[in-house]
């Protein structure tokens, strides 16, 4: 997310098309439940898993929480694929210790190609 200003209007630049959906998905996933005063149900429970042991169950809990948040709160996109990695990236690279890589692929309505966030 950047706070660049438009050179003509000097207002914040608008994010459009697939970039706006990516940003919205990221915002929903990174928002904790009850964080927004008038929308307490908006968000995901990933922070609940933050200090839990990173075992074989944790990726399943993270994936379920993220999938629910995307399905419930991003009506412009359909979730196609979700994968949680905590040992190696899909490319085979080692993930740093105490890190998780989450890949989300969605099909944005009215756009021809799926978009991937990671």
What portion of residues belong to β-strands? 15-25%
Q: In terms of per-residue confidence, which ranges show pLDDT below 50 for 5 or more consecutive residues?
A: none
The sequence of SSEs as H and E is HHEEE
Indicate the percent of residues in helices: 25-40%
Please provide the count of β strands: 3
C-alpha Rg (nearest Å): 16 Å
What is the topology, as strand order, of the major beta sheet? 1-2-3
Mass-distribution shape:
globular
Q: Which structural class should the secondary elements be placed in? A: alpha+beta
Main beta sheet strand tally, sense and closure: 3 strands, antiparallel
Describe this structure in words.
This protein is of the alpha+beta class. The chain is 25% helix and 17% strand. The chain contains 2 helices and 3 strands; from the N terminus they run H-H-E-E-E. It has a 3-stranded antiparallel β-sheet, covered by helices on one side. The chain is globular. 10% of the residues are buried.
């Amino acid at each position: 997310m950047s706070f660049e200003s438009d050179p003509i209007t000097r207002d914040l630049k608008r994010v459009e098309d697939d970039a706006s959906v990516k940003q919205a998905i990221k915002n929903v996933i990174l928002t904790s439940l009850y964080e927004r005063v008038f929308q307490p149900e908006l968000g995901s429970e990933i922070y609940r898993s933050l200090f839990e042991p990173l075992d074989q169950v944790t990726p399943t809990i993270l994936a379920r929480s993220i999938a629910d948040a995307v399905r419930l709160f991003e009506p412009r996109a359909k979730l196609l694929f979700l994968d949680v990695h905590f040992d190696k990236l899909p490319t085979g690279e080692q993930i740093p210790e105490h890190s998780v890589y989450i890949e989300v692929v969605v099909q944005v309505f009215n756009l021809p190609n799926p978009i991937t966030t990671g």
